[in-house]
Amino acid sequence: AELRIAFKKTLQAARIERKWYDRPMMNSNQITAAKNSGKLVEVKDTPGLRVVRLQDPTSLGGVQHPFLTPACAGLLNSVVKEFQARQNGFPQKLFLSVTSMTRDLERQVALRKAGYPAAKESTHGLGEAFDINVKYFTEHSQQHFGLIKEILNGLARKGAINLIDETAINGALHVARNPKYRG
Q1: Kind of pairing between the strands at 129-133 and 96-100
Q2: Cβ-Cβ contacts under 8 Å for 112 (sequence gap 6 or more)
């Protein structure tokens, strides 16, 4: 029952993103075209960021397409930089792990069929969202979990992002960029 409630809350919280982006998700060919035209940019590992790439094409876990729009990639980069900078004084410095970025319409359908709370139209399918895996933090470092939540909640309060806490479902925080935010 608790998981069903979390699923429902997640799907309700994602509705705001449909108001921001009134266009359909991309299929895999459209994602390739967007990447080739520069509308999507590749996100690579950095000292503060690990991109958990899809290892098995039949698996539903991991980043299918490691691309975001330039604006969303900039948002992720600023979150990573702030997270790294604000860990000074912590007993250990941890990195952020991203488990989802751009995914195609076909994968979104597969996630829904598998029972995940994946919206019919997701900002993941536009390159405007990413998921930060916080499972390690929730199990081993509440200090780091509190820090990333503080950073993301601050952005949400400003209206820069839609933040959906999916920790009870998949151990992640979903972050979607608000295209109307000018901060």
Answers
A1: antiparallel
A2: 118, 120
Predicted confidence (pLDDT) per residue in 58-75, tens digit: 676 778 899 999 999 999
- Spatial distance between the Cα atoms of 53 and 33, rounded to a whole number of angstroms: 20
Whether 136 contacts 83, CB under 8 Å: no
Name which of 161, 175, 171 is nearest 131 in CA terms. Answer: 175
Token pair in block for residue 128: 């405007």
**19: pLDDT strictly greater than 70:** yes
Distance (Å, whole) CA 172 – CA 64: 16
Burial of 100 per CB tally in 10 Å (0-12, 13-18, 19+): buried
Q: Using one digit for the tens of pLDDT, what is the confidence trace for 121-178?
A: 889 999 999 999 999 999 999 999 999 999 999 999 999 999 999 888 888 999 999 9
- Residue 131 burial (CB count, 10 A): 22
**Rounded CA separation 110/100 (Å):** 14
Helices (H), 44-101: 70-85
Mean pLDDT, the chain, whole residue set: 90
